[in-house]
From TrEMBL, chains A, B:
<dbReference type="GO" id="GO:0006779">
    <property type="term" value="P:porphyrin-containing compound biosynthetic process"/>
</dbReference>
<keyword id="KW-0169">Cobalamin biosynthesis</keyword>
<keyword id="KW-0627">Porphyrin biosynthesis</keyword>
<dbReference type="GO" id="GO:0005737">
    <property type="term" value="C:cytoplasm"/>
</dbReference>
<dbReference type="GO" id="GO:0008817">
    <property type="term" value="F:corrinoid adenosyltransferase activity"/>
</dbReference>
<dbReference type="GO" id="GO:0005524">
    <property type="term" value="F:ATP binding"/>
</dbReference>
<dbReference type="InterPro" id="IPR027417">
    <property type="entry name" value="P-loop_NTPase"/>
</dbReference>
<comment type="pathway">
    <text>Cofactor biosynthesis; adenosylcobalamin biosynthesis; adenosylcobalamin from cob(II)yrinate a,c-diamide: step 2/7.</text>
</comment>
<comment type="similarity">
    <text>Belongs to the Cob(I)alamin adenosyltransferase family.</text>
</comment>
<keyword id="KW-0808">Transferase</keyword>
<keyword id="KW-0067">ATP-binding</keyword>
<protein>
    <recommendedName>
        <fullName>Corrinoid adenosyltransferase</fullName>
        <ecNumber>2.5.1.17</ecNumber>
    </recommendedName>
</protein>
<dbReference type="GO" id="GO:0009236">
    <property type="term" value="P:cobalamin biosynthetic process"/>
</dbReference>
<dbReference type="InterPro" id="IPR003724">
    <property type="entry name" value="CblAdoTrfase_CobA"/>
</dbReference>
<comment type="function">
    <text>Required for both de novo synthesis of the corrin ring for the assimilation of exogenous corrinoids. Participates in the adenosylation of a variety of incomplete and complete corrinoids.</text>
</comment>
<keyword id="KW-0547">Nucleotide-binding</keyword>
<dbReference type="Pfam" id="PF02572">
    <property type="entry name" value="CobA_CobO_BtuR"/>
</dbReference>
């Protein structure tokens, strides 16, 4: 709208108020139609950063709300000591399960990785079945599924039959179609710009 | 590779080990070239969920690493009590600044919003100048810039002259080109699937 430049500050303010009022009303209407409360299946996928970090943000928010949470780490070495140390502040509210020796380039041992994935999945099922756990993070589960270390049908079946109020967050790039299909909320983190391109090292506090 | 189906588990394991070994070596080489350590400018943008949540994940990680952090909230009402409560566990390490009465549909008062944005920006400059603050979150700054409530040149100038070791995280959709230009790491959160489409209500612990 090129005529905008000719408007006075006061006119701009009035227009703004009108526009924002309309937005507010529209939002109210939308929210009024949303009445189902249930635990959600949330997926963070994509090649960009922030999949696990955003999941941890949700975990900390849930902890702040005094909910019990559980975390299963399907890929070793992805977390920094910082996350651990921060979770330690909420020790009585958090259950953490680390998958055996982890996997991929660090182990180079496929048979052992499959074994570890199966154990971590058994643990996940237990944690999901326990309705005390209100938010459960299955960190990097997508990676394990992508390598076909777990039968996808079993995972989908467990997700399908999860306790109604439990939220489950699944992270990892290359989420399988079946996972996206069963999820309520799917976000893809896309990389636009990365400091590694310009020779910057990963460092304490911030991790890429 | 259609012949994959005919390989035995043992052959699959050997192939896997070879492939992963190569990956590991390649990764080592890349990491060896990354030697610059500096505070980064990190941007979370896009229309999807997780921009602020991932930033909070980084804040909690930094807190776990015993770093001082500061948060300026440019848009009111975006945080839930959960975040607040979780941050309270690290009270001595966190500085939080809330921007006046907040902005957009909640206030519908453009003049007051501009005033509040300016104050929050003054506070941000102070926090950035204080080298005790190692990680600074300028939450939803992009929104304020998009509405032209702050002169972009001033913001870029401050970011350009930030203390070398300070990490700054900027969130909000529609990041301006100038912000992307000066950033080291930019991630765009893209919405793939949203529960509001199917009538599910936002709720405690999980927020959309």
């Amino acid at each position: 709208m090129p005529e905008k430049k000719e408007l006075s500050e006061e006119e701009l303010n009035i227009r703004h108020a009108e526009k924002m009022h309309k937005k507010k009303e529209a939002r109210k209407k939308i929210l009024a139609t949303k009445t189902i409360e249930k635990g959600l299946i949330i997926v963070h996928t994509g090649k960009g950063k922030g999949k696990t970090t955003a999941a941890f943000g949700m975990i900390f928010r849930a902890l702040g709300n005094n909910l019990n949470v559980a975390v299963v780490q399907f890929v070793k070495g992805q977390w920094l000591s910082g996350e651990r140390a921060a979770l330690d502040k909420f020790r009585d509210k958090v259950k953490i399960h680390k998958m055996g020796e982890g996997f991929t380039w660090e182990t180079q041992d496929r048979a052992r990785d499959i074994e570890a994935a199966k154990k971590a999945w058994e643990k996940s099922k237990e944690l999901i079945a326990d309705t005390n756990n209100k938010v459960i993070l299955l960190d990097e589960l997508n990676i394990v599924l992508r390598y076909n270390y777990l039968p996808i049908e079993q995972v989908i079946n467990t997700l399908h039959n999860k306790p109604k109020d439990t939220h489950i967050i699944i992270t990892g790039r290359n989420a399988k179609d079946e996972i996206i299909e069963i999820a309520d909320l799917v976000t893809s983190m896309e990389l636009i710009k990365h400091p590694f391109r310009s020779g910057v090292k990963a460092q304490v506090g911030i991790e890429f």
